[in-house]
Amino acid sequence: MRVALEQADPQVAALIRAETERQHDTLRMIASENYVSQAVLEATGSVLTNKYSEGYPGKRYYEGQRFIDPLEELAIARARSLFGVDHANVQPYSGSPANLAVYLALAQPGDTVMGMALPMGGHLTHGWPVSATGAWFRAVQYGVRRDTGRVDFDEVRDLALRERPKIIFCGGTALPRTIDFPRFAEIAREVGAVLVADIAHIAGLIAGGAHPSPAGHAEVISTTTHKTLRGPRGAMLMCDERHAKAIDKAVFPGLQGGPHNHTTAGIAVALGEASQPSFSVYAQQVVANAHALASALLEHGFDLVSGGTDNHLLLLDLTGKSIGGKPAAKALDRAGIETNYNTVPYDTRKPFDPSGLRIGTPALTTRGLTPAEMPQVATWISRAVDAALKSDDAALDVIAAEVRELLSAYPMPGRD
Ligand code: DSN
What we know:
The chain is an alpha/beta fold. It folds into two domains: 3-30 and 277-407, Aspartate Aminotransferase, domain 1 (Alpha-Beta Complex), CATH 3.90.1150; 41-274, Aspartate Aminotransferase, domain 2 (3-Layer(aba) Sandwich), CATH 3.40.640. The protein contains 16 helices and 15 strands. It has helices at 3-8, 10-25, 38-44, 68-83, 95-106, 132-136, 153-163, 181-191, 203-207, 241-255, 261-274, 277-299, 325-334, 362-367, 374-389, 393-407; strands at residues 27-28, 55-56, 59-60, 87-89, 112-116, 138-142, 167-171, 194-198, 220-224, 235-239, 303-304, 313-317, 337-338, 340-342, 356-360. Strands 4-10-9-8-7-5-6 form a seven-stranded mixed sheet, sandwiched between helices. A four-stranded antiparallel sheet has the order 11-12-15-14. 51% of the residues are buried. The site of D-serine (DSN) has 4 residues, from loops.
């Protein structure tokens, strides 16, 4: 394993080895993370990192593209076929640059744009004030209802009719419920806005048929490739033919230089994997695990935003447990369960010390865990929160050992 690296740079090699073991021994429940396959790892860690390829297939500014062009064309063709779209651009470096390219393609600075507020479950790049998208555009923001934790489409429609945004973003980072793409599309059509579906979190579920698709509803689709889609860290923009030129021009030369060809190769491999029947089984299992986990956590007295989940993600409101999200996340990390603290809608606490905990099932499903294991996972979460309230580090260490023991039976892609 990694003989050259071990010899050339033992310090870096040791850190990678240690992180590999940490990922193996930890119940990784950050909703946006996953384990890529050995095939994706190999494509990503290839000599393609040596090559510059500014431009697009057939129209590059550097020579030596005879293998890069068909590679990027393959990734594009697989994305188009998997998501049923006219056009795909596989070059954005990650989700935020992809979303910035959407603004560059479709709006002018100062234009009104609309998206879900970050504390309600949206993303920074959907117009939140500290993001360039909130600073350079006139962003108006919608949320979820306080009583249901779900999007209120009357509010979205009223806001859109009043503000007449050029772009409406739907999707986000902490949304446990199905996104109603047709309803958003209806509102966008009524006000003459372009609907952009940010499917970063749910792309793999859509590919596997476990969440409805925005294709045919949203004119532009933005996604990262490394969450439920289980590819390398990267992003894609997909759209109708009518926006294809503007989107491509915005990505390059508008925002970026040369594409990361090693990432393009990893994306192509991941898209190939996601088109297999086994990936549909995976996507359904991610949702089944989330359902089972939600039921078990409710039995332990946890409060879930919106009362449950339709997808891969659960947002726990810990207010009733008398603990903040941050101390809970830190205790869980010591207990071998990796999560992130998160705001909940209408949070009364600060973003750096919020009331919520965001958890998800994509990574543990890749390891092979099933709904049968979810009551045990919920029990560990509950025990860890109780231990945190008593500052009982020894109890957290006991849980970590139990987690390690369970996970030793489940191989980790890229390690085993
Ligand atoms: N960092 C991503 C997430 O965790 O959802 C959003 O950009």
